[in-house]
Amino acid sequence: MLQHGPKRPLYVPLQNILTKSQHQNPSLINQSLSQESTETPQNSSNHCSSENKYGHICDLLLSQTRSRSLFKGQQIHAHIIKSGLQIIPLVCHYLINFYSKTQLPLLSGQVFEESERKSSTTWSSVISSFAQNEEPVLALQYFCRMLGENLCPDDHIFPSATKACAILGRCDVGKSVHCLVIKTGYDVDVFVGSSLVDMYAKCGDIKESRKVFDEMPQRNVVSWSGMIYGYTQLGEHEEAMRLFKDALLEGLDVNDFTLSSVIRVCGSATLLELGKQIHGLCFKTSYDLSGFVGSSLISLYSKCGLIEEAYRIFDEVPDRNLGVWNALLIACAQHAHTKEAFDLFKKMECAGMRPNFITFLCVLYACSHAGLVEEGKEYFALMKKYEIEPGTQHYASMVDILGRAGKLQEALSVIEGMPTEPTESVWGAFITGCMESRSRNSINRLKRGVTF
């Protein structure tokens, strides 16, 4: 067990960073469920000693998890509460996983909080639920809580913690987790090591990512893919392709994430012929049906000017994740297919797909280049419905839409209403609007009010 206290300062920086966060507070989890059970089983020990008898309940939950059937899954949850089975750690694990897969991480947290016995499996499940569903701060807060209870993370929990760090882009927090990985001896574990490679790459620290990669005693497809992805993101296409060739020479069975990263290299460098060859490899291995590969192929053909091919790829992907929808939205916006972009957004909503901040950037970009002011305002306002806080890029897009239409006073009002200081991209959009409108008054006002 790990000791947690003032003599072990390793965890203090991690906790300090998290407590300063302005993200969602875990106390909100307590408001997630409107109904709670007040029943307590008469004999808890009998229930706990008979966990293997509840396999059928777990099987039912697993079935609803696979089918993403929220209503039926919650009916099973109600039965579990009524029967007093929520004290069984195995049942809790399946419940947490069910809400995780149905993209309701706060309900995963509620199940965890209501469980009387918190096993290492339930800790792992709830931390994973937060990390997988874009709640990185909660994932790390629960990770710290677990450390505070003298529980040692394992090869399942560490990757969730590093994923949370990657989402936040917090390399400093990731290094604290990395220190703990070394202290507990999990640095030799291939899954934990691969997650560190991926975390450093996504945080932009390619040197540290490569250092971890080179020191790994054993590498798997995740570590190779993470390394290739890191070089791709930095635009180091030659190194990314060299690594891909090395992976093939070592006989690595590449997966859809690996192929997706390589296709992105081809798209960024507009290497159409090479991209087609990789596409052929995807077809042979059936990875062309993957959402990861599909989104990359859409991006490749769009960047190479083959928008119709991008549409065809979209139609052929059977299980479209959000990345696939966003990839085609970006393609539509870049090729001035504004009507198609709007229609695609509606189809996405009808399919039950929840748009994210990238989705709204795409439609705002389409509105900007088509000069559609009212539509832009509607999409910007729609972000509140989906509880998405506009970022600086969204504000810059909105300012660009208004500026291009000559509505400089409205654009300035948007800037003044920003919750944070306007960035260079926001002011750049405003200046562009002033230049296009030849508004000397607005430019002079900008000079008086802004210090660069």
TrEMBL record:
Any GO BP annotation: plant organ development
Cited InterPro entries: PPR_At4g14850-like_plant, PPR_rpt, TPR-like_helical_dom_sf
Protein's recorded name: Pentatricopeptide repeat-containing protein
PANTHER family: OS05G0305300 PROTEIN, OS07G0578800 PROTEIN-RELATED
Record GO terms (molecular function): RNA binding
PPR repeat extents: 119-153, 189-223, 321-355, 356-390
Domain of life according to the entry: Eukaryota
Pfam families: PPR, PPR_2
Keywords: Repeat
PROSITE patterns: PPR
